[in-house]
Amino acid sequence: MNNHSKETIRTLIIPLSILLIISAFFSFYNLKNAPPGLYPDEAMDGTNALQVIAGAGPQVFFPQNSGREGLFMDLQAVALLVFGQREPWVLRSVSGVFGILIVLGMFLFIRAFLDGDVSAQKSSQATFIAYGGAFFAATSFWLINFSRIGFRAIMAPAFLVWTVYFLVRALKNYRQKHSSQPQSSTRGAVFLLMAGVVYGLGMYSYIAYRVTPLLIIFLFLLLRRLYALPWRQIMRSFIIFSSAAFLTALPLLIYFIHHPADFFGRTSELSIFATPAPWQELFSNILKTAGMLIVSGDMNWRQNISGSPALFWPVALFFCIGFGGMIAALVSHSVRVQYRHYRQIFFLAIFMVVWTLISFLPVIFSNEGIPHALRSILMIPAVFGIAGIGVYGAYDFLRDTISFKILSVFGILSGVGLIIYAFFSYFIVWAQNPAVADAFNARSVAIARQIDQIPTSLPTYVVVNIPGTLVDGIPVSAQTVMFMTDTYNTALQQQKNIHYVTEADEKNIPADAAVFYLEEQ
Q: Is the whole model's pTM more than 0.85, yes or no?
């Protein structure tokens, strides 16, 4: 290891340590109580995880509840085995790990993209932007919330950001091979294989991930231009990457070949083309999704502080600075001339904006709950990456007029302020709001704990009066009680003398039975 590498490692230890501590804190602090309850979709995943443990083994796809890629539930099965408890926080702990991986991946990817390995100034510049973007993500309600909910969607941005990181490392290596510091071509191939495997795993995450091939193709073209790579090298790299990704995703592809209806799931139901005025709906969705970032956000309490913008206003300001600087450089020759000293930042900004726009697609072509924070989850690394560029732009503008000491103190105080605001907004404003308990079916968890105290000699009936997708003839809303009481199949229900019925069968309940009702609040 040369002196430059040792110095780089020493420089990164402190910012990385701080980021990981912040991210881990927000992912796991008080996870047993916030969020309260267990949403039926989370419980359905937990049920599938229990089935994996019971002997079904890991699955690439679970067809129940409109169908879901299986990797998340397979990992939840591991968590249930490790912790030995059948509790909501165990299911959600898997999301916490992926939330941390997103923050770490953002830092490493942005720094790798910007670090030209030519001067201490550029290395410091790269670290500044990488730390800013990752810090904004780590302290955002948007990422904190989905890092604490048992939804598989959190895996999608994690796999994508690590794919991008490995691709940047791979193609940068080939650029260095033609410079004064040659590197092993084997190393580049290893990074390409790692990128392909990680990208292929992302196909097992969330349906919105299927738009990402557009982004990967764009990244190859962008890096070819940035690193002045020959087309032959780009094509060879793309083939290695694609082959690894294809082989990794092949089991899921085989499943879809045999079950083509599961490939689309609810996509056709949620499409804007199922509405009377699809193009009007599309235009409205574009405005609402763009406005979600800085004007008015998701109204669903399960996914957001109802109506709040996805970006806290200081972060939104830096996002606008980063986005505006990129647009100005595109349309103004004089600004482009100034950007010659910031070429890599300019290319990064372009990539982040394209990433954001491609991540819009799964949202704007759907017709349910727009703006939709969950369906927009792929854009998290890009949006906060742009904000990271914006905060560096603000610093670069001010450092000639304000002393470094004053800027440093202001930056530290602002960072502490963001941490305090993140804690307050999530754990006080959101988690303690009664609407959140209702959104996560906290009452169903309370009923399940009551049922667990009833002796098996007494027949217990759960009347499910909440409409929804049927799972084995019972609405999916019953899954919360089923998971918590470990009665997800007929054999377990008979063993524990617990019975699930709909309103139509209520008349057949014995007079001496304990009866609980699951009804809409």
A: yes
